[in-house]
Amino acid sequence: MNLYFNQSLAKNYNSKPQIIRVLSEAWVKDNGYCPNCGIQPLAEFGNNKPVADFYCAACAEQYELKSKQSKLSNIINDGAYATMLARINSDDNPSFFFLTYSQEYRVNNFLIIPKQFFKPDIIIKRKPLATSARRAGWVGCNIDLRRVPETGKVFLVKDQQVIPRDSVTRQCHAAVSKDVIFT
């Protein structure tokens, strides 16, 4: 597994969020695999599918990717509150990948939180944007990872060390098979 982003993919982009989206999604497509069944590669959904970036053609698991520079924090900024709630309450709700990277565009951590751990109580509604904002009234959300037990956080890469695929798959199956107690 190559832990570096292919920076040449971002040469036609100027916006930092667009650059990171392109680089991190390409990295997952090239290096990621389905933690549920171990199949590689993952397939990509088309652009603008709400709360879904990848899926496994073999087992149909869906994944949403969240990326950020530096370390993983307890509170993750996300998109529209209503869209997130609708998606995690749906029959085909996704699991979430969280990816952190260094200033040199190297993956520090890459983990999955299986969909069973995403419940409405970990989604925090933000205040609506001010009436003076371009998208006045829009309501976003944050994800509170403190409400996810450690067994629900399965690393594929931890501190720039690749975790063996069979270990990841075993941990994912163990995490979702246990009785989950949310605090």
Give an account of the 3D structure.
- A hairpin with a 2-residue loop joins β9 and β10.
- The chain is α+β, with helices and mostly antiparallel strands and 183 residues long.
- It has three helices and ten strands.
- Residues 179-183 have low confidence and may be disordered.
- The N and C termini lie far apart (35 Å).
- The strands form two sheets. It has a seven-stranded mixed sheet with strand order 1-2-3-5-6-9-10.
- The radius of gyration is 16 Å and the shape is globular.
- It has helices at 16-31, 81-88, 165-177, and strands spanning 43-44, 54-55, 62-69, 75-80, 95-101, 107-113, 123-125, 140-144, 154-158, 161-162.
Summarize the structure.
The chain is α+β, with helices and mostly antiparallel strands and 183 residues long. 20% of the residues lie in helices and 26% in strands.
Helices and strands, in order, run as HEEEEHEEEEEEH
The end-to-end span amounts to: 35 Å
* Overall pLDDT level: 93
* Alpha carbon gyration radius: 16 Å
In this structure, how is the largest beta sheet organized?
Answer: 7 strands, mixed
Low-pLDDT stretches are 179-183
Report the sheet-strand fraction. Answer: 25-35%
- Biggest β-sheet: strands ordered side by side in the sheet: 1-2-3-5-6-9-10
- Shape descriptor reads globular
Number of strands: 10
Number of DSSP helical runs: 3
- Helicity, in percent? 10-25%
- Give the class from helix and strand content and strand pairing: alpha+beta
- Could you state the oligomeric state of the chains shown? single chain
